[in-house]
Specification:
With 764 residues, this protein is mainly β. The chain is built from five helices and 54 strands. It is globular and about 90 Å long.
């Protein structure tokens, strides 16, 4: 069992004035529970604080604090029969007042239970016993979080002299939180390879909240659709292992392949993503470049973070992105050292980097990735750092950041997190290669629209900004994050830092909401266009004549039309592919055709309140069907299993769900396509005859930021998982024609290509 994060690696600020010189004088803390506890289980955890040599004065006391990422049961002190009931008792009979304080301490310790001494005081050796999940009054106990954690801390802070200054004790009591039983399986192949190239099939089992789990054993079957050399027909799962990796596979010829994992009785447990095998084509590699560990606002160590990304999420590329104002000099060195130790050409690429975390008014969050170690960190501030030596190198605005990085071998992304990026605040030039349009925070297509309006030529990426220790497989859990974490697929000739950087600087990548579908977008011309190796708006560059452009390319043409070619292969049936020129829809290509017999209704809640940290929109209400009944029901992107979204009786659906820019909803298979739907969702209250709902979504606007409800009629079964199309596109004369696509699959995942930027020769 590993211990808590090393304190010297954490950016933390404590009062400079202290009662004494020795932290041991503040007392000690211990937990009665030391055995691992299962995610989402109910526990009773007893913490004992022993008073130190200064005692605890009247109105002084302690705080027990936990990390921001914790999505376990919210502590409460009011109802002894309800879950998460907490009590405190003083060994000397002194009266204690308990007070739950949301945001009661500095990040990341913002969950706080304050215990105040009243009507007396306590002396050295007296004890305070705190019971989390006290069952004595009928409470089921303390509900644990949804994710695993090697050291789940109950950190104790002390205000011995009733000054209002709380200081930590040296002890850091913790329990380990472990996964539950396996309920689902994931089989992962690369997405694009050449004939004869070696690759691996990776498999993991997950519990109900998507934690990899080793609570599985036995023999399983593997069945390939398509020819795969070296694939065994049977595998024995090693007891206790959370993943299995089968190396040395290859495909002898072009084509599409996939692998199914079956139980010995023939049940399909998982079907892999499609692998497209094509000669003379760049290969693809998957990355989640954005997340944090417990040294800042996440959980677990940075070593555990990189290990999860490589060995359990099966990523090819990652980086670590702690908030800069919490990275002390020692941790910046550790980030560089750990990235270097995990980086292995051909196997796993790890970049050193950080999140520049200026307030939105100063330019907002941006992610910085270095190609090499040893570069200086240029922070937005020292908000949580005692160190003063680096203050002179701080850059407080995004404009200052880009100026400071102008000579560095690095790239920058714009990020919508707690401090949404304002890309209009400064032109990132060649440094800012992409904007992040999906993460655990939600979906932000509007950021691409803003980029187009400003005349920038960005690629797009999707990452997780994971805080729960699962880069590359980032379930949002039960907290304020509303979406599954995203992934970015890079086209590259080699899995090296150089290969991925070429992909980034050329915008040769696409993003998804966490699935691994295949996507290829090309633009062709009858007469050669002028392709630019770098963005000509940033300085003169000699073009090369070409008739084919690849995803992310920039070119000018004398012609008035271009042809867009798309090729998509998916893990789940295709619902729709939208073809876009900037923000304008060129075509919307459904993966099906609705018929008069179709009786499946998809209801989706979309959008957010606004761009900032409090963007969560709550959709609470019911959908009632009059004149027909519900014969089948399933959810779409309902990641938070604690949020009600279920069928009630034969004609109603009740819900209480959150969106943060993404969408969540349900499919209702109806007995007949007659009658009407009455939907009351708080922000929307409508009644619609079912006959008015077709294969093109019916939209009910709900204000806010891209907030609306969509209603769509679907066939009972969708089957199309491969689409290739060619469209003639009319080019407008003014400015860019950013040509890109958006794919939506039946299971609710989405993917977006980076645009191909085409402008008429009279343009910029």
């Amino acid at each position: 069992m590993s211990g808590p994060i090393a304190m010297e690696l954490m950016g933390e600020v404590w009062p400079a004035a202290q009662p004494g010189a020795d932290p041991g004088d503040r007392g000690t803390a211990s937990l009665e529970c030391r055995e691992p506890v299962e995610i989402r289980s109910f526990q009773t955890i007893v913490l004992t604080y022993t008073v130190g040599r200064f005692g605890l004065d009247d109105t002084g006391g302690i705080k027990v604090v936990q990390r921001f990422a914790n999505d376990g049961g919210r502590w409460q002190t009011d109802d002894p029969a309800a879950m998460n009931y907490c009590t405190a008792r003083a060994s000397n009979g002194c009266r204690l007042v308990t007070r739950v304080e949301p945001g009661g301490h500095q990040r990341p310790w913002d969950r706080s239970l304050r215990i105040i001494v009243t009507h007396g005081s306590m002396t050295c050796g007296d004890r305070i016993e705190v019971v989390f999940g006290d069952r004595s009054g009928g409470s089921p106990g303390l509900r644990m979080q949804t994710f695993t954690e090697s050291a789940h801390e109950f950190r104790v802070l002390v205000d011995a002299c009733a000054t209002g200054h709380f200081l930590p004790v040296s002890d850091r009591p913790f329990v380990s939180v472990v996964p539950g039983e396996a309920v689902s399986w994931h089989a992962v192949l690369p997405t694009r390879r050449r004939p004869g190239s070696c690759f691996a099939l990776s498999i993991r089992a997950e519990d109900a909240w998507s934690n990899p789990t080793g609570r599985v054993e036995g023999t399983f079957r593997l069945v390939a659709a398509g020819a795969i050399t070296g694939l065994p027909s049977l595998i024995d799962w090693p007891p206790g292992e959370e993943f299995l990796r089968i190396e040395g596979l290859s495909c002898p010829a072009e084509g599409d392949v996939a692998v199914r994992l079956l139980s010995m009785d023939g049940r399909t447990l998982a079907t892999s993503n499609p692998l497209v095998v094509e000669a003379n084509a760049p290969e693809t590699f998957w990355g989640d470049l954005h997340g944090q560990s417990g040294e800042s606002v996440g959980i677990n160590t940075i070593e555990e973070y990189f290990t999860f990304a490589r060995d359990r999420a099966f990523l090819d590329v990652t980086s670590h992105q702690a908030n800069d104002f919490q990275i002390n000099d020692l941790f910046w060195q550790r980030i560089n050292d750990v990235a270097a130790s995990f980086n292995e050409d051909g196997r796993f690429v790890a970049f050193p980097g950080y999140e520049w975390s200026g307030n939105t008014s100063m330019g907002g969050d941006h992610n910085v990735f270095f190609r090499h170690e040893g570069r200086a960190i240029r922070r937005s501030s020292h908000a949580l750092l005692h160190e003063r030596s680096g203050l002179a190198s701080d850059v407080n605005t995004s404009g200052e950041l880009f100026e400071a990085l102008s000579g560095e071998d690095c790239v920058v992304f714009a990020h919508i997190g707690g401090r949404p990026a304002d890309i209009s605040a400064a032109d990132g030039g060649a440094l800012r290669t992409a904007v992040e349009i999906h993460s655990n925070w939600g979906t932000f297509e509007w950021l691409m629209a803003e980029s187009f309006a400003l005349g920038y030529r960005h690629g797009l990426v999707c990452n997780s900004d994971v805080h729960k220790g699962r880069p590359g497989a980032s379930h949002p859990g039960a907290s304020e994050f509303g979406a599954y974490g995203g992934l970015t697929c890079f086209f590259a000739d080699h899995l090296t830092r150089d290969g991925i950087f070429r992909s980034l600087r050329g915008r040769h990548h696409y993003g998804t909401t966490g699935c691994r579908l295949h996507m290829n977008v090309r633009v062709t011309f009858d007469e050669p266009a002028a392709r630019f190796a770098t963005d000509p708006r940033l300085g003169p560059v000699d073009p090369n004549p070409v008739t084919t452009l690849f995803m992310g390319d920039i070119a000018s043409t004398a012609g008035r039309t271009a042809r867009l070619h798309l090729d998509v292969a998916t893990h789940s049936p295709i619902l729709r592919i939208d073809v876009l020129n900037g923000t304008s829809m060129i075509a919307s290509l459904p993966g099906y055709r609705s018929q008069s017999k179709d009786t499946r209704l998809r209801v989706l809640f979309h959008g957010a309140e606004y761009r900032g940290r409090g963007r969560q929109t709550r959709w609470r209400g019911r959908a009632r069907f009059d004149g027909t009944g519900i014969r089948s029901f399933s959810t779409v992107c309902a990641w938070n299993h604690d949020r009600p979204l279920h069928r009630q009786g034969d004609s109603e659906v009740v819900f209480d769900v959150l969106t943060t820019g993404n969408f969540v909803g349900f499919d209702a298979g109806l007995e007949t396509w007659s009658g009407r739907l009455a939907l009351d969702a708080g922000h929307v209250d409508i009644t619609v005859p079912l006959q008015e709902i077709g294969e093109d979504p019916l939209i009910a606007d709900a204000g806010g930021l891209e907030r609306h409800v969509s209603l769509t009629r679907l066939p009972e079964e969708l089957t199309m998982t491969r689409m290739t199309e060619t469209l003639e596109v009319a080019l407008h004369d003014e400015g860019d024609n950013p040509l890109w696509i958006r794919v939506t699959t039946e299971d609710g995942h989405r993917a977006w290509s980076s645009p191909v930027y085409v402008f008429r020769e009279a343009g910029p």
